[in-house]
Amino acid sequence: MPQSFALGGRSFSIKALLKSLLPEMLGATFAVVLMAFAYILFSFSLEVTSSPGFSKLADKVVNGDVSLLPVTVVVAILLFIVKEVLEFFKKRRESKRKLFAYKSLISEELELNLWAYKRLLMIVKDIESQEEEHPNANYTLLIKESGQEYIHGYDGDDLIESCPIPIVHDKYYEKFIASIAELDSNLFDLAQSSYEEVRNMAHVRSGLIKGLLAEENDEPFPHDIRKSGFLDYAKFELADTFTAMNALYKECTGNELQQHRLR
Question: Degrees (nearest 5) of the Cα angle 102, 107, 109?
Answer without folding.
Answer: 95
